[in-house]
Amino acid sequence: MDCIEFLSNSGWVASESIAETLTECGIPVPDRNYLAQAFDASVWDETGEACALLKAHFKDCRYADTAVYGPLLVPNPKRFDVRSMLSGHIRNSQPEITVPDFVDERLPSGADHTFASSDWTLFAALVSEAGISMGSYNDIIKCHDCVYTVNGYDTRQLMIRQLWCSLVLQSPLVPDSELRTGWTFSLFAGEDPVDGSVVSGTVLHGQVRQRLGKATRGSAPARVRPALRIAGSRQISTL
Fold it and tell me: Number of structural domains, the chain?
């Protein structure tokens, strides 16, 4: 996969309302020229290697045959917090999203794994329409670390709202939606439970939903998206 080509054709760039929002928030639109300057060439090689490691490590999981790993960009939350309930005009370029976002009011701000000094943080992640199945939240949390550790990092720590919400904006076709091959939702094993309930994300009936549910639910639609953090963007002079 050509990571720069993939990202320069993503929703961050190709979706007008999303690109306009980035500009309004003071975040550079990650087009081809920006990406080539903001990240060293070696970073793209590292991303590809990380994707290969993730794919190999989770190859025996249910639905691994349809999982695609690739680059995922997450904006600096101090400028644009994707975990929040986004206003309608941001979603204007996402025709599959027709209803205002739902974010359960009991949710805290959520985990943040971005580099504080960077406009963008780059991850290698499962970016296809649905994740892999590893059971319920409880099943995932109780597993030995080695089941989820890739290249020395426990990938459960990055199964969080921040990455999933970024993926919803980045993907030309929204993930975890009933409009795809089958309806799914992503479990966020990297987020703490709230009053005994656990957080997941889905897009259902035209609505992006960050919701709370049972920690024991591990049916086929329950998926996870392993990821590894790669690098933060460097500042680019506009002079």
Answer: 1
